């Protein structure tokens, strides 16, 4: 099969919540990380969908604005792939594509709460060891951070808080590339 990664389409929004219910379950919103997303919109320039050749929605990745003790950063997730299509490279393609877009847009730091064996290859490292904290329960090994700008973590530590609605990347003058990329998988 082949799929295309494209900026999230208006019609995808209604499909994302049911996909998250299927992949993460209904109690996902009780997790600490959801407190950082409440009543905030995801960053539109970093919302991507995977779609098949017929235009069917296959997977989603979104990012939210956060601050690390006042320093702007982004929170990766949720990332979810239709269960029947998992393990074909769609998730990794979405992460790679969106992190490149985030970097191009000038974002310097990205946090994720997820499986370290999945995110390590994208450069994520344990966040607690860097002096970052989440205000709520989290499995420490799942709490990770990566620099999108070399050296961006230097001197940055403290509690992660919600970002500001409509917040921009530090180098917001450089617009994110809203490109489509087509890929073939087994
Ligand atoms: C996790 C998820 C996004 C991965 O996307 P995907 O398209 O299925 O995965 P990919 O094909 O890109 O990557 C496959 C690789 O990731 C690994 N992998 C898949 N799901 C994983 C998970 N939950 N934790 C750790 N590793 C995982 C596979 O073992 C495989 O490893 P390999 O490349 O060494 O063989 C997807 O399986 C999913 O939506 N799962 C349910 C929701 C979820 O758990 N999201 C958590 C993100 S932290």
Task: Assign the structural class, choosing from mainly alpha, mainly beta, alpha/beta, alpha+beta, or little secondary structure.
Answer: alpha+beta
Major sheet: size, sense and barrel closure?
A: 10 strands, mixed
- CATH superfamily, please? Gcn5-related N-acetyltransferase (GNAT)
- Ligands (ions, cofactors included): coenzyme A
In the predicted model, the low-confidence regions spanning at least 5 consecutive residues are: none
Note the run of SSEs as H and E. EHHEEEHEHEEEEE
What is the CATH class? Alpha Beta
Number of strands: 10
The CATH architecture designation is 3-Layer(aba) Sandwich
Query: How many helices does DSSP assign?
Result: 4
Strand content: 25-35%
Kindly identify the CATH topology: Aminopeptidase
Helix percentage: 10-25%
* Rounded Rg: 16 Å
Distance between the termini: 6 Å
Q: Topology, please?
A:
Layout: E1 2-7, H1 13-24, H2 32-35, E2 48-52, E3 57-68, E4 71-81, H3 90-104, E5 109-113, H4 116-119, E6 125-126, E7 132-134, E8 143-147, E9 158-162, E10 181-184
Parallel strand pairs: 4-5, 7-9
Antiparallel strand pairs: 1-2, 1-10, 2-3, 3-4, 3-9, 5-8, 6-8
The structure holds coenzyme A (COA).
């Amino acid at each position: 099969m082949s799929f295309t990664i494209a900026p999230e389409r208006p019609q995808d929004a209604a499909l994302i919540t049911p996909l998250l219910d299927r992949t993460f379950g209904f109690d996902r919103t009780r997790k600490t990380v959801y407190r950082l997303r409440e009543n905030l919109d995801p960053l539109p320039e970093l919302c991507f969908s995977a779609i098949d050749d017929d235009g069917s929605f296959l997977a989603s990745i979104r990012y939210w604005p956060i601050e690390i003790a006042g320093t702007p950063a982004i929170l990766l997730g949720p990332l979810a792939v239709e269960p029947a299509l998992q393990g074909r490279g769609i998730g990794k393609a979405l992460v790679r594509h969106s992190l490149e877009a985030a970097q191009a847009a000038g974002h310097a730091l990205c946090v994720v709460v997820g499986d370290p064996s999945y995110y390590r290859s994208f450069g994520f490292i344990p966040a607690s060891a860097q002096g970052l904290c989440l205000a709520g329960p989290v499995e420490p090994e799942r709490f990770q951070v990566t620099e999108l700008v070399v050296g961006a973590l230097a001197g940055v530590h403290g509690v992660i808080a919600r970002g500001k609605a409509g917040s921009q990347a530090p180098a917001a003058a450089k617009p994110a590339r809203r490109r489509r990329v087509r890929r073939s998988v087994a």
